[in-house]
Design a protein that fits this description.
The complex is a heterodimer of chains A (about 220) and B (about 800).
Chain A: E1 3-8, E2 11-16, E3 21-23, E4 28-31, H1 38-44, H2 54-69, E5 73-76, H3 84-88, H4 92-102, E6 106-110, E7 124-126, E8 128-131, E9 134-137, E10 147-149, E11 154-160, E12 163-172, E13 176-178, E14 189-190, E15 204-207, E16 213-216
Parallel strand pairs in A: 4-5, 5-6, 6-7, 9-10, 10-13, 11-14
Antiparallel strand pairs in A: 1-2, 2-3, 3-4, 8-9, 11-12, 12-13, 12-15, 15-16
Chain B: H1 3-9, H2 12-21, H3 27-34, E1 40-44, H4 51-65, E2 73-76, H5 80-96, E3 103-106, H6 112-120, E4 125-128, H7 130-137, H8 142-145, E5 151-154, H9 157-160, H10 164-179, E6 184-189, H11 195-202, E7 210-213, E8 221-224, H12 242-251, E9 254-258, H13 262-275, E10 282-285, H14 291-302, E11 308-311, E12 324-330, H15 336-343, E13 355-359, H16 363-377, H17 391-404, H18 409-417, H19 427-439, E14 453-455, E15 461-463, H20 468-474, E16 484-489, E17 499-502, H21 503-507, E18 514-517, E19 520-528, E20 531-536, H22 556-568, H23 576-588, E21 597-604, E22 607-613, H24 618-634, E23 639-644, E24 649-653, H25 661-664, H26 666-679, H27 681-694, H28 715-725, H29 730-741, H30 746-756, E25 760-764, E26 782-783, H31 787-803
Parallel strand pairs in B: 1-6, 1-7, 2-4, 2-5, 3-4, 5-6, 8-13, 9-11, 9-12, 10-11, 12-13, 16-20, 21-25
Antiparallel strand pairs in B: 14-15, 16-17, 18-19, 19-20, 21-22, 22-24, 23-24, 23-26
Classes of the chains: A alpha/beta (about 220), B alpha/beta (about 800).
């Protein structure tokens, strides 16, 4: 499994190359910002008709992550759907795939700014949830403790001898951990963006990809 | 001059004015008047031959005799600046002859008040660009606005026909022709290699189009600049020639100094000023500079205040700069036809020879310049047929048509086939494009509820959501701007920007890095709200800014001339330094020849290098680089990247290539092409361009840019998703087609493979061979996303962590 093992607030965690977070002690998989149904929402608003395959692709990658980790609990950290209507408009195939993934697992939907309403998809719906020492919510709090969140879609670059590489990334410091967006149709926000300046001085970025890598968070 | 003949065709007021000026019409101008009723005419005339006036004479004559309200003539040119210039020139005879003719321009720079007024009360003559015309046609009132149009003048038709802007224009004209079947067209062009093909391109299909050729005037006076210092072995700056260039500037009234790329123009300008002890007034002009900065230079030029302008293709066309008496071309010209057109920029007086000097930037380019000079003297112009009109432009046209109101597929298909480049469009291809515009055209029919275009019960197509029109209109055009960021002084917020740099280049900058823009060295301070903030810097060695700008491949014809020239072995026409350089290459390795593919392999700067001399032009050499590095990755040779020039591809990596056989069999290449095509950067770049034109990606979403980049995702993701789930989708078919004839240029790769008939020789060397040296300094390096890169990333991550004390 391509994963970067690290310790956050005393808990050994694994940042997966796909952008998912795995907590072995709890057999818990966390993914953030799936943005399912994004292409549908854009078309609905009169925009271009993007390739309508991102839901299928995102769920397939989620299925792969569940297969490798054998997780028994899943937390979707908000913005799971591009908007509530996109959640309602989910195709039958996508619903069936989701049900299959949910079968035999505890599944927690955290509310995001894109998907405020509870959906008729089963599972638990929460504004936030706490498991052991860790609290899971969509947007980072101003003064959190051991918090895992999403929302910002962080990405970072690394300059190498052979040129610059940019990748979605995890960000973490002593008190908070921010996940990259897991959804296929998602962009990123540079870790150097002022919106992320609240991260602690010794924060690290874990770049996703075939071999996840930790670097000091680029400011 | 036949005064009586002139009387017959020019109305009295114009005739009087012309004779009062002591002007006589050229024969081709009279011929244009005589042919005023032809459906289409192509006039080929050199610069300074009164070409534009020739195009307007029938309009002036018709309007002088019977002025009617409403739009009579549309003039379309590729340059916004040209419209303003032409307007000034037209007003002279109009006001001089006391004619009641209104001339206005309408471009992206025209104010919205003015545009609104023009839609209600159009002038007699409207000067515009292909994009503005397309936009006007997207409005519901288009039929009323264009109801009276009699004539269209297409200026610089040769330049338009080389790009998708021309294809878009021809579609727009087909629409105009449908609104107005009696519309007559005049196309004006510089010298081209195949006038009949251009005539077919600009004429309404299947109408005939006569080709008028004006007297081309005397042959140009063109030579290579003799310099005190020899050109370097490598490099593209031509800094060695600056004292000699300055001497030429001093000896002439006004000199245009052309460069092939914006980056080169910037560096040359910077170096020129370091040596310009007399402070000769010399300006710089290129497409990445801020508009205000460009206009200042243009005005100074017109006022005769500048002795020279360092410029790029942005000055290739049109505007009459008055007293230019010398054109200097820095760097090899790549293409004989463009060189001839550029030379024509000197001396706008008809029937005087233009004077031009070629300045090769390195010894290799000396050979290329020599071959180009031979071709110019032999009147041997190059050019490759353009092929049928691309479908991405057609998709955009369909969306524009939908903005203007409902239409039937039959009518639109018939209309579109009236455009020269789309004369052979099949109904099936048209239907595919229509389906793409309506539903996205996906195998998964996901958009039945949210179609962009809906069909009414009477069969007419219309836009489902009126909100779409805004986005479609904002997306009009086929020019690909890569994402650029404005550059501005940090202390001077709100002051005029200096210009723009590519976002990709901005991403490589760290605080304190210096780069050149507008001829000055600036220091990168930071990025604030999508603006690159800089401060002045006294550094002498700036980083090189990469500007987007077309890199033309050396034409097939010119590369053949070069190979033939090398094979001759008689290099007397070359300066000694270059002949010696070629001899040195022949000594330590081999000279390239047409009959085989030569490969050199050597270590350099801690990495292994492989240089493949294919002579297939930049794009095909780039494709070769992509295919070979893919093969090398498969064979665990750890390639890291490559760079292509017009004559060779240089690949670097961690291991040496010692046996080319497994890399370069024709079968392996062709097979590699299929699989490789799908995942590489060139395809993604092509996809991005085509998908933007076709309306799948919106480049100008109102307000989106400001809200930060988190909201947008890269077009690469769309490409990967489509490729994975819908590989036969129209957009991917268009991308493959475009890439094959554009950036991939597989045709020329095939030509090369057929030429060498499997003869490949590899030479292992211990040091850098002379011919390969220039490649080390080529820009446009392409990284290989392979395992070697992952290893280097790991290395760098460990270093950074250790440095931060975090390991």
């Amino acid at each position: 499994m391509n994963a970067h093992a690290f310790t956050f607030c005393g808990e050994p965690l694994q940042a997966l190359g796909s952008g998912a977070l795995f907590w072995p002690r709890e057999a818990l998989l966390v993914v953030s910002d799936l943005h399912l149904g994004k292409s549908e929402r854009i078309a609905r608003k009169g925009g271009p008709t993007l390739p309508p395959y991102e839901t299928q692709d995102t769920l397939q990658r989620l299925a792969d992550a569940l297969d490798t980790t054998k997780a028994t609990t899943v937390i979707c950290l908000g913005d799971s759907f591009d908007d509530d209507a996109a959640g309602q408009a989910l195709s039958d195939t996508a619903r069936a795939t989701l049900s299959r993934l949910k079968a035999g697992r505890r599944w927690i939907w955290i509310t995001g700014n894109h998907d405020p309403g509870p959906l008729d998809l089963g599972g638990e719906h929460r504004a936030e949830t706490t498991i052991g020492p860790l609290t899971f919510r969509h947007i980072a709090d101003a003064k959190p403790q051991a918090e895992v969140s999403g929302h910002y879609h962080p990405k970072a670059r690394l300059r190498t001898r052979a040129g610059t590489v940019s990748r979605p990334c995890f960000l973490y410091d002593e008190i908070r951990l921010i996940l990259p967006a897991f959804g296929t149709y998602t962009g990123g926000l540079w870790s150097s963006d002022p919106a992320l300046a609240f991260m602690g001085a010794r924060a690290l970025a874990i770049l996703t990809g075939p071999q996840p890598l930790a670097i000091p968070m680029p400011r | 001059m036949d005064y009586v003949g002139l009387m017959r065709v020019l109305p009295a007021p114009l005739d009087h004015w012309f004779s009062a000026q002591g002007w006589a019409l050229h024969p081709h101008q009279r011929e244009m008047l005589a042919r005023a009723d032809d459906p289409a005419t192509l006039l080929i005339a050199p610069t300074g031959g009164g070409k534009t006036l020739a195009g307007f004479l029938p309009t002036l004559a018709e309007l002088a005799e019977a002025p009617k309200a409403g739009l009579h003539t549309l003039y379309i040119s590729p340059l916004k600046a040209l419209a303003a210039d032409i307007r000034r020139n037209l007003l002279r005879p109009i006001e001089g002859a006391g004619l009641n003719i209104r001339v206005e321009d309408r471009t992206g720079d025209t104010s919205s008040t003015q545009k609104r007024r023009q839609r209600v009360d159009p002038p007699h003559i409207l000067l515009t660009t292909p994009e503005s015309l397309a936009l006007m046609l997207s409005y519901e009132e288009a039929p009323r606005l264009f109801a009276a149009v009699q004539r269209v003048i297409i200026d610089e038709a040769h330049a338009l026909a080389e790009s998708k802007r021309g294809d878009q224009l021809m579609l727009a004209l087909a629409r105009l022709q449908a609104l107005n079947p009696g519309l007559r067209r005049v196309a004006l062009s510089a010298t081209v290699e195949d006038p009949a093909a251009l005539a077919q391109y600009v004429a309404p299909h299947p109408a005939p189009c006569a080709v008028l050729t004006a007297d081309p005037g005397p042959d140009p006076d063109i030579r290579m600049l003799e310099t005190a210092a020899p050109p370097p072995w490598a490099g593209g700056g031509a800094a060695y020639a600056i004292p000699d260039v300055l001497a030429q500037v001093r000896a002439h009234r006004t000199t245009l100094i052309f460069h092939n790329t914006r980056a080169q123009a910037e560096i040359f300008f910077h170096n020129l000023w370091l040596q310009n002890d007399e402070a000769l007034p010399i300006g710089i002009h290129h497409g990445s500079l801020d508009r205000a900065a460009r206009e200042k230079v243009e005005a100074a030029m017109v006022a005769g205040q500048l002795r020279a302008i360092v410029c790029t293709g942005s000055l290739d066309l049109g505007i009459d700069w008055g007293d230019v008496d010398l054109v200097i071309q820095i760097g090899a010209p790549k293409n004989v036809k463009r060189l001839v057109q550029r030379i024509g920029r000197a001396n706008h007086r008809y029937n005087a020879p233009s004077k031009a000097l070629l300045v090769p930037a390195n010894r290799w380019e000396v050979v290329e310049c020599q071959a180009a000079l031979d071709a110019v003297r032999a009147h041997d112009l190059d050019g490759e047929p353009r092929g049928d009109g691309p479908l991405d432009v057609l998709c955009q046209h369909i969306l524009i048509r939908a903005c203007a109101g409902p239409f039937t597929a039959e009518d639109l298909y018939r209309e579109v086939k009236g455009a020269g480049p789309y004369a052979r469009l099949s109904r099936a291809a048209f239907d595919d494009c229509l389906d793409f515009c309506a539903t996205g055209g996906y195998a998964l029919r996901a958009y039945d509820r949210w179609k962009r275009l809906m069909q009414r019960p009477d069969g007419q197509w219309h836009l489902r959501d009126p909100r779409s029109t805004q986005a479609i209109r904002m997306n009009i055009g086929t020019i690909q701007d890569t994402d650029t960021l404005k550059v501005r002084f940090a202390r001077n917020r709100g002051g005029a920007p200096l210009g723009e740099i590519e976002e990709g280049f901005a991403a490589t900058l760290s605080k304190g890095d210096t780069f050149l823009i507008g001829g000055q060295i600036v220091r990168f301070e930071g990025l604030r709200e999508m603006v690159v903030e800089v401060s002045r810097d006294a550094a002498r060695k700036p980083k090189i800014a990469t500007f987007n700008g077309t890199k033309f491949a050396t034409s097939t014809q010119l590369t053949h001339r070069i190979l033939a020239f090398l094979a001759k072995g008689d290099w007397q026409s070359l300066p000694n330094h270059t002949a010696d350089w070629l001899r040195l290459q022949a000594e330590v390795s081999d000279l390239p020849d047409a009959g085989q593919l030569r490969i050199e392999s050597f270590p350099w700067d801690g990495r292994e290098h492989t240089c493949v001399y294919g002579f297939a032009g930049r794009n095909a050499q780039q494709t070769l680089g992509l295919l070979l590095t893919k093969r090398m990755e498969d064979l665990s040779l750890d390639p890291l990247g490559f760079v292509a020039s017009d004559y060779a591809t240089l690949i670097w990596g961690l291991k040496p290539v010692t046996d080319p056989a497994p890399l370069l069999t024709l079968d392996a290449l062709e097979e590699g092409l299929e699989t490789w095509l799908n995942g590489n950067a060139v395809m993604k770049r092509t996809f991005r361009a085509s998908a933007t034109i076709a309306g799948l990606i919106e480049r100008n979403l109102p307000g989106l840019r400001k809200s930060g980049r988190q909201a947008t995702f890269s077009s690469d993701i769309l490409y990967d998703t489509l490729h994975k789930y819908d590989p036969e989708h129209l957009m991917l078919r268009i991308t493959r087609q475009e890439a094959m004839r554009g950036l991939i240029d597989f045709g020329r790769l095939k030509e090369m493979l057929e030429r060498i008939e499997g003869r490949i020789t590899l030479r292992r060397l211990t040091r850098l061979p002379p011919l390969a040296a220039p490649l080390l300094l080529e820009v446009g390096r392409v990284p290989v996303q392979g395992m070697a890169r992952e290893r280097l990333m790991e290395e760098e991550a460990q270093r950074l962590m250790a440095e931060a004390g975090l390991n």
